[in-house]
Structure formats: C-alpha cells, structure tokens
C-alpha cells in the first residue's frame, strides 16, 4: 500500500510521519506539503500514487480536494487533527502519529 502524509510546509509533521514508517517493508511512504513554500509540494502524481492519504489538519484535506478534485475523488483522506506546534521528530508528535496511524496499517 502507498501512503502519503500531508501538512503545510513539509518541514516537521509529515516528514516525521514518513521517517517513522519508511523502514517498513509492507508499505511505501511519502510526505508533501500544501503550501507554495513546502520543501516537497504535493502534486497530482503524489495523489494518484497514494492508496491512503493522511492530512495533518482539516485545512490540508480541503486544499487537496480543492486543488486536485479529479485525483482525490476516489481517495480516502484521513484527518489526524495534529496542529502545527511540533518540531521534526518531537517525541509527543511521534506518539500522536503512531496512535492515529498504526490502526490503519
């Protein structure tokens, strides 16, 4: 299964999620951001690649739906409700991501 993590700037939350899971052999993981200033900006190709998408906040899901209506039409996008108040690999952020995501894997 291909899994995409999405946040705003692809600096802290989504790269942390990708780093947590990237060593797994049973799934592929990527991360991207919705903002023009994102390190890796989400693309239509990313959406099409993904079997499952995790958005850190409701606004990220809405941005995906608005910008990529055709690509997201048949996609499951799960909102994790993780605010932008953590740094990369923050212990609490890792716990929140695992608590929310592990059940889907």
UniProtKB/TrEMBL annotation:
InterPro entries: Ptyr_pPase, Ptyr_pPase_sf, UCP029416_PTP. Transmembrane segments: none annotated. Signal peptide: none annotated. Residues 1-103 form the Phosphotyrosine protein phosphatase I domain. SMART domains: LMWPc. This is Protein tyrosine phosphatase. It comes from Niastella vici.
């Amino acid at each position: 299964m291909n899994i995409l993590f999405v946040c705003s700037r692809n600096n802290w939350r989504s790269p942390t999620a990708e780093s947590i899971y990237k060593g797994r052999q049973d799934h592929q993981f990527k991360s991207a951001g919705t903002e023009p200033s994102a390190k890796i900006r989400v693309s239509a190709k990313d959406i099409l690649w993904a079997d499952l998408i995790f958005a850190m906040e409701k606004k990220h899901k809405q941005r995906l739906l608005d910008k990529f209506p055709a690509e997201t039409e048949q996609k499951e996008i799960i909102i994790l409700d993780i605010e932008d108040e953590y740094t990369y690999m923050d212990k609490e952020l890792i716990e929140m991501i695992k608590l929310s995501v592990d059940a889907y894997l």
